[in-house]
């Protein structure tokens, strides 16, 4: 995906924390709660030696951060990416803390990753790396401690390997240690599409407020991975015109819109994004313009969905965004410096800690099912997700109206309120100090 511009923050974690300061003015919580959220609970870095297919040893660097566990075990994904570092993982863990609070889930926030380009590894090397990483962090995770899940460039099979390795390490069958697993290994139906489906539910609620016609509404999706595909397919089925999509190599644009099931079929069959129309297994190329990821962001569309990596919209390009609605399916795609520019330009932002929370919500459903040993149908999962997304969307929306603030600040107000109540319940200075020296 595009690299962050010169205006992107050098410290992603510190930049992420700025959202707390803006929300604190509206959240009635004790200052001690705010101070505690500025410091991750646990951060670990591990080295992961892996025997490569060539016979050589290669050592990779891995991370896991548990930002907060006041409301429950840490929860958050594991990403495989060459630019993963501790600063990024801290920021992602912080966002997970806030996301779980916004969705009122009994979790805190965590995140992890390995500094690697998984495309350079064979499947056997990828399995060795995944299992070795879990072996390194096994003492720091668990169903009551910290529950990983898939993220960028990880998938259900990788989660299955990791769960199996943890079970070997502990000598216990513990499917609830990791979510996002394959269905035969204790995964939940509906989990694969959950992030995109949650974003879709948010868009549908916003649609009701704005009263627009889906068939006359254009959409651009940056990032055509799991989440981007899911939200694009659901919107396409409703009649939305998906006129542009992109992946890490670049994008395609077609004024008339694309047949999204065809793009997904071609992408999954060839691992390449192509402008095609498919009938059964026969696909033919159709006319479309080739565009860059940066150009996609600046298209004249109604809805822009950044679904790739963080920091793609910065102070450098925020004034060039023409969409009237921006739905953050990626984590942190808009820097704090860019947000006020977008707001000033009347761009309505559905923030990441709400818009992409469908994934962690269904991960929570999977964790519950694993612990109960009782599994729900896909229809049940999707209905429960709809109720959760609809409820919390309106909670955030009501806060934004009550205080006349944007949806991002409102989401953090809701998160701070819930986390602050939990932290205050353990006691603050007001409880422990009576003013007498």
Helices and strands in order:
Elements: H1 12-24, H2 31-37, E1 42-51, E2 57-68, E3 74-81, H3 86-102, E4 108-115, H4 123-137, E5 146-150, H5 156-170, H6 194-210, E6 218-222, H7 226-237, E7 241-247, E8 250-253, H8 260-270, E9 276-279, E10 282-285, E11 289-291, H9 293-297, E12 303-306, E13 325-327, H10 339-344, E14 348-350, H11 352-355, H12 358-372, H13 378-403, H14 407-424, H15 429-432
Parallel strand pairs: 3-4, 3-5, 6-7, 6-12, 12-13, 13-14
Antiparallel strand pairs: 1-2, 2-4, 7-8, 8-11, 9-10
Strand order of the largest sheet: 11-8-7-6-12-13-14
**Low-pLDDT sequence parts:** 1-9
Q: Could you give the order of the helices and strands?
A: HHEEEHEHEHHEHEEHEEEHEEHEHHHHH
Separate helix tally: 15
Identify the CATH homologous superfamily of the largest domain.
NAD(P)-binding Rossmann-like Domain
CATH class wording of the largest domain: Alpha Beta
| Structural class determined from secondary elements | alpha/beta
Helix content, binned percent: 40-55%
Number of strands: 14
Distance between the termini: 58 Å
* Major sheet description: 7 strands, mixed
CATH architecture of the largest domain: 3-Layer(aba) Sandwich
């Amino acid at each position: 995906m595009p690299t962050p511009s010169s205006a992107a923050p050098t410290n992603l974690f510190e930049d992420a924390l700025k959202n707390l300061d803006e929300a604190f003015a509206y959240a009635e919580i004790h200052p001690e709660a705010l101070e505690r959220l500025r410091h991750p609970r646990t951060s670990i870095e591990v080295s992961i030696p892996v025997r490569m297919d060539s016979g050589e040893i290669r050592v990779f660097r891995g991370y896991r951060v548990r930002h907060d566990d006041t409301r429950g075990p840490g929860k958050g994904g594991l990403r495989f990416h060459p630019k993963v570092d501790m600063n990024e993982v801290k920021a992602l863990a912080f966002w997970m803390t806030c996301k779980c609070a916004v969705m009122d889930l009994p979790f805190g926030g965590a995140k992890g990753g390995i500094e690697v380009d998984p495309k350079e590894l064979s499947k056997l090397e990828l399995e060795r790396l995944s299992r070795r990483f879990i072996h390194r962090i096994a003492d720091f995770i668990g169903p009551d401690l910290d529950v990983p899940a898939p993220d960028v460039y990880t998938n259900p099979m990788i989660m299955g390997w990791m769960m199996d390795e943890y079970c070997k390490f502990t000598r216990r069958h513990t499917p609830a240690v990791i979510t996002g697993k394959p269905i035969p290994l204790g995964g939940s139906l509906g989990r694969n599409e959950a992030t995109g489906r949650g974003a879709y539910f948010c868009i549908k609620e916003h649609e009701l407020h704005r009263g627009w016609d889906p068939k006359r509404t254009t959409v651009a999706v940056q990032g055509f991975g799991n989440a981007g595909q899911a939200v694009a397919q659901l919107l396409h089925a409703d009649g939305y015109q998906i006129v542009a999509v992109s992946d890490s190599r670049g994008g395609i644009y077609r004024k008339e819109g694309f047949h999204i099931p065809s793009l997904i079929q071609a992408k999954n069959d060839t691992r390449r994004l192509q402008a095609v129309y498919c009938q059964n297994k026969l696909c033919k190329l159709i006319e479309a313009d080739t565009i860059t990821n940066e150009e996609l962001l600046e298209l004249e569309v109604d809805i822009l969905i950044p679904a790739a990596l963080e920091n793609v919209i910065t102070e450098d390009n925020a004034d060039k965004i023409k969409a009237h609605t921006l739905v953050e399916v990626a984590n942190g795609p808009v820097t704090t410096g860019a947000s006020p520019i977008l707001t000033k330009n009347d761009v309505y932002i559905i923030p990441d800690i709400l818009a992409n929370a469908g994934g962690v919500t269904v991960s929570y459903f999977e964790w519950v099912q694993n612990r109960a040993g009782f599994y729900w149908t896909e229809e049940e999962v999707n209905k429960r997700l709809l109720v959760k997304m609809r409820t919390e969307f309106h909670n955030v929306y009501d806060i934004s109206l009550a205080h006349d603030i944007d949806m991002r600040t409102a989401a953090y107000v809701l998160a701070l309120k819930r986390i602050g109540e939990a932290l205050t319940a353990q006691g603050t200075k007001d409880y422990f100090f009576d003013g007498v020296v």
